[in-house]
Specification:
The protein is α/β, with parallel strands linked by helices. The protein contains eleven helices and nine strands.
Length: 297
């Protein structure tokens, strides 16, 4: 993912902003668990994108990927509508503990811009529901020119979304973050409707690091810069997720992208090792014993 890519990442201040006070208040209202539910994955499983990740002779990429990771941020569903049978096939290929986190289609978010989309949403949900228990949080990524003047459209969409299906929303227009009143109205809308506020950590858009959670789920889309700073950035995230877990966070969904996706599994393996140590989780380290992958830098 090249969103927020910069030419000189060494010039960026990657320090994480302090946790939003409303996030603290919200998390403290939940009953604490011993360990949070943690899902970490990449955005794609294609061999062309993750070159070097798959052992020679791998016949089914998803089947292998799902034995290394417990989740996938399914971006393919943004570009085309998949039939129910395809979702059922994906489900059948993956282990019991695996989850898919699919993106809503561009017809809904970009072409129709949330207007007159009820039929498209129903078709999407009918098909995606064939993932059954492996369906994670669906996420809506709005166009970068979808600004605060469209709040009513977003409100209508959020209120009408089926309450039993987890949803996350990512806004990109700078006005959502610069306008304090608009940001407060937006996050309040999400909180009232139990919708996740997506966090995007990418070099060129530090304004999207709002640190404002709106329910008991942290949905983080992390974009590395193919630079050594990617490591220390992930170290900071491990500490932040530990902080939130101690406050009461129960669900962590963390997806790792790179400008050059080939390095995403390597960075994810580093992150999972750190997360297991800090949170006491026991996630598998992808390709832990494999010598087939190139070094990260």
């Amino acid at each position: 993912m090249k969103f927020g890519k910069v030419e000189h990442p060494e010039l960026i201040d990657f320090s994480l902003p302090k946790t939003h006070q409303k996030t603290i208040n919200l998390l403290q209202s939940y009953e604490k668990n011993d360990k949070p539910n943690v899902f970490v994955g990449c955005a794609k499983w294609n061999k062309a994108d993750l070159k070097g990740f798959y052992p020679r002779g791998t016949k089914d990429e998803l089947e292998y990927y799902s034995k290394q990771f417990n989740s996938i941020e399914l971006n393919a569903t943004f570009y085309r509508q998949f039939l129910a049978e395809q979702f059922a096939k994906w489900k059948a290929k993956t282990p019991d503990n695996f989850k898919f986190f699919p993106k809503l289609g561009q017809e809904i978010s970009h072409w129709k811009r949330l207007e007159g989309v009820q039929n498209a949403v129903n078709i999407y949900l009918d098909n995606a529901s064939h993932l059954e228990e492996k369906l994670g949080t669906i996420f809506l990524q709005l166009h970068s020119n979808f600004g605060t003047k469209n709040f009513d459209k977003l409100q209508n969409f959020a209120v009408s979304w089926p309450k039993g299906i987890p949803l996350a929303i990512e806004v990109r227009h700078p006005d959502w973050f610069e306008d304090v009143v608009a940001f407060d109205e937006f996050t309040q809308l999400l909180e009232e409707n139990n919708i996740v506020n997506v966090l995007v950590d990418t070099a060129g858009r530090r304004d999207m690091m709002h640190m404002r959670l709106t329910n008991n789920e942290a949905f983080v889309r992390y974009v590395g810069a193919n630079h050594p700073s990617d490591y220390t950035r992930l170290d900071d995230w491990v500490l932040r997720l530990k902080e939130w877990s101690d406050l009461g966070l129960q669900n962590i969904h963390f997806f790792i992208h790179q400008n050059l996706e080939v390095e995403s599994p390597l960075l994810a393996a580093y992150f999972i090792k750190k997360l297991n140590k800090e949170l006491g989780t026991n996630l598998k380290i992808p390709n832990e014993d494999s010598n087939s992958q190139p070094s990260l830098f």
